[in-house]
Amino acid sequence: MSKSKNVVKKLTTILFTILFTLVSVFAIGPTNVKAETTDITEFKAQATNIENSATILLVEDNEQILKYLAGKLAEHFNVVTATHGEEALKLVGEYLPEIVISDIMMPGMDGLTLCRHIKENSLYADIFVILLTAKTSSEDELRGYKEGADIYIKKPFDTEALINQIMNILNTRQKRKEQLLKNLIAKDSDTIEFNSKEVFLQQAMKVIEENLDKADFNIEEFSIAMNISKTVLHKKFRMLIGQTPNQFIRAIRLRKASELLINSDLSIAEIAYLTGFNQAHYFIKCFKEVYNETPKNFRDLKKGDR
Asked: Do 80 and 57 meet the contact criterion of CB atoms below 8 Å apart?
């Protein structure tokens, strides 16, 4: 690290140390003061304590800043911490966080390199990355965005504003989940439009379509085809669309069935078989649960609209 970078790093540390001390003395109650003295590894152990909350991976090599931010974020989210890029990348694979917040200037793998590794991996590409830095030039900011950062925040910053930004990101993610689910079962939609970050879902949909007529296609085969564990597969689907992999497989089967009902003269039993349903009565039951019509009525209504 160059001499100028060291100076910037030291100045930033001093600013955050002053802020941390002031907040500890005047604003944080007894519970949070205790968190200040908690060992960093304990934040990792507490990562699943808040049920149904998003998981944030916080990466910062300065211990005081790390503890302060982790304490503030932990009031709203599950928080996992790392002190350098290599450790953070391992934790990304372990926890699949919705958001990674990382300092840029760190020993070893820096924040820019970490961001690039995340965005270049199709399994992680949809993870939102926020970079924190004392580097304030427009050139540095542009480089951050070129490496794939979603937000670039200059230090010092308002912690409450950061928390509100995170909440806005998660609200937008929730709306996208709802939109994807709606498009997945839409009666009049021929294709599902994925954005550039949803590579994982595109790959998952392709794998299912290639195995559509296999009634015994299961989660184990699905995870092998996606080159990830069953646990990670389940976590990923929960995070992206709020469904289990099995629910997603069935939704794709039914979507294809709806297309065949409209665009072919195949019998209902034949369509059930081609979309991976061994029994026609089970296919009819599943179809009605999603489309609120039996396959026959669905076909008649659609052909009547032509």
From this structure: yes
What's the confidence (pLDDT) of residue 195? Answer: 79
C-alpha–C-alpha distance, residues 131 and 83, integer Å: 14
List the beta bridge partners of residue 15. Answer: none
Contact between 262 and 190 under an 8 Å Cβ cutoff? The reply is no
pTM above 0.90, yes or no: no
Asked whether 16 and 68 are in contact (CB, 8 A), the reply is yes
Residue of 188, 77, 67 whose CA lies nearest to 128: 77
Q: What is the end-to-end Cα distance of the chain in Å, rounded?
A: 68
Count the Cβ atoms, other than its own, within 10 Å of residue 282. 11
Contact yes or no for 58/81 (Cβ under 8 A): yes
Adjacent-strand bridge partners of 49: none
Angle 132-136-137 from CA coordinates, rounded to 5°: 130
Show Cβ contacts of residue 165 under 8 Å, excluding neighbours closer than 6 positions: 130, 151
pLDDT at 43 over 60: no
